Amino acid sequence: MSTPVLVTGAAGFIGYHLAERLLREGRRVVGLDNLNDYYDVSLKRARLAELEKHPGFTFAEVDLADMPALSTLFTQHKFELVHHLAAQAGVRYSLTNPHAYVRSNLDGFVNILECCRHGAVKHLVYASSSSVYGATTRMPFSVHQNVDHPVSLYAATKKANELLAHSYAHLYRLPVTGLRFFTVYGPWGRPDMAVYLFTKAILAGQPIDVFNNGEMQRDFTYVDDIVEAVARVGEQPATPNPAWSGDAPDSATSSAPYRLYNIGNNTPVKLMRLIEVIEQATGKTALKNFLPMQPGDVPATYADVDDLARDVGFAPKTPIETGIARFVDWYRKYHGV
Fold first, then answer.
1. In the sheet where 81-84 sits, what is the strand order?
2. What one-character-per-residue DSSP string does 56-77 give?
3. Average of per-residue pLDDT values in the chain
4. Which of 24, 52, 162, 218 makes a 20 to 30 Å CA pair with 293?
């Protein structure tokens, strides 16, 4: 492919790792980010500094809601592949700042769809989330089951992204693939995520907040596994499912070029086990402050990744003991601890 790949959210956690992977493969990458202050901007700038070591990287500081600037970028570069990872993240933040999610995750996503449509993009891959499963309790979560009961605004915006993407796939035959990420962690991770928060507090000898008394389970997925899956999916544009029927509609496929995949480790881990692994990696014992479950949280996540494994020949598999050790090593080096 002669044209560069667009990675939105390139200064973010997953976007940075994906851009780095594509650059190492010799691809040219245009990284888009608005560098907002949802969390420490210096971490975002440090990620960008790593990417800018590659001659094939170009940075565009653009907000998704700025349609003229976004349209100009698409016209300039004539993207064929777009990895859309930029979004307003976080379940709890959505309880107090709902309009930030509407601007980025809804307005911004429609702008991306419009630019892909008019720019004749050959494949749009976008980040959804395991949060779309909401009140669903049948596990492992499958992309073929109903997800009409979100329990946070953040989850609702991600479900809306899937619906909007399908409408563009149907109307304009735009190939779109949505990826439901399950609790991603690893080096350069987000400071608002549990692994980062716990590691920071434990190393500093400060107490950690343990919600739902540590009984919550998450399908913690190492970032390198996420990126491997995303990169493979990107090379296989979504196609119509010839067996799809409106009489018994499959939510993960369509008569349009539309696909959904889970990307998770397929191994749920209790929060208390996560804390034990971080204690082992840091060599320190956590001071625990047990709290009830927070609004918008779900008790457990567990990904069925059979479709992903079948279609791209890969499924996440990094054990949490390995991934956490790598994260703690990075954290110590980055923060000089």
1. 57-61, 29-33, 5-8, 81-84, 123-129, 176-181, 258-263
2. TEEEEE--TT-HHHHHHHHHHH
3. 96
4. 162
**For residue 174, which of 122, 212, 114 has the smallest C-alpha distance?**
122
Active site residues: 154
Task: Report which of 176, 109, 101 is spatially closest to residue 131, judged by C-alpha positions.
Answer: 101
Q: What is the band of 298 on the pLDDT scale with cuts at 50, 70, 90?
A: confident
Amino acid symbol at 169: A
What per-residue confidence (pLDDT) applies to 93?
83
Cβ-in-10-Å burial (0-12, 13-18, 19+) of 137 comes to exposed
Quick one: what percent of the chain has pLDDT higher than 70?
100
DSSP class of residue 242 equals T
How buried is residue 300: exposed, middle or buried, by Cβ count under 10 Å (0-12/13-18/19+)? Answer: middle
| Residue 1 reports pLDDT greater than 70 | no
Side chain identity, residue 204: A
Q: With beta carbons less than 8 A apart as the criterion, state whether 181 and 263 touch.
A: yes
